[in-house]
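Residues determine shape. Take a concrete instance:
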Amino acid sequence: MTGTSLTAPGGTLHVTVTNTGSGAAALGAVKLTLQSGLTPVSATNFQSVSGSKNWILGVSPIVSPDVIVGGAPGNNKLDPGDAISFDLAVTSSICDSYSITSVGSNDTPESLTDTSFTSNQWTNTAGAVTPSRSDVRAP
């Protein structure tokens, strides 16, 4: 994730999602969870980095603190090695460090269920993203 420098009251994070798995497991959707104090506003500018996949916001995409993105209907799951990127606009009025965690699902946004992100084999290999305190500044 790049663009971790935010100036209150908000900014844009550039997010890249990559399926680093092996074999045939395809990644259908990702849920980002923002720490309290950081509010998601929008996700835009979806672009395929590798693999020519089309990703979109989920059906109920932004319910703070969560943002759900995933493959558009059709064959748009990320195969191993495929990656997409997008811009995540956020707001915050508090100078602090924030963690952003994520989980994945085999389901795509149109088929997500209440258990899609709880009973999955996907793990976040990048770990939580934590902008440093000096990167999140008051105006």
